Amino acid sequence: MTTSKKKQLQKIGKIINISKSNLVTIKAYSLVKPGSRILSKNGNYLGIVVDVFGPIHSPYISVKPENIKDIVIGSEVYTIEKRNQ
């Protein structure tokens, strides 16, 4: 029996703000760990999670973007979820 790892985009939240220091704030639907890669719907790399903060049941994520020009307030963001199959 062989197993393979399949990668699938997992929706994690919506961009709600860009700070003066160019950090992006995301209203999270699910928790992610600092260091996680954040992607757009089409799989383009947007940035990396630097902090998770706020209430446990309604957290926010702070992301350092790769290119601030790629960030659109209101857009959904994703991370890669690895699944064994």
From TrEMBL:
Record's signal peptide: none
InterPro entries: Gar1/Naf1_Cbf5-bd_sf (IPR038664), H/ACA_rnp_Gar1/Naf1 (IPR007504), Transl_B-barrel_sf (IPR009000)
GO biological process: pseudouridine synthesis; ribosome biogenesis
Transmembrane segments: none
Pfam families xrefs: Gar1
Annotated protein name in UniProt: H/ACA RNA-protein complex protein Gar1
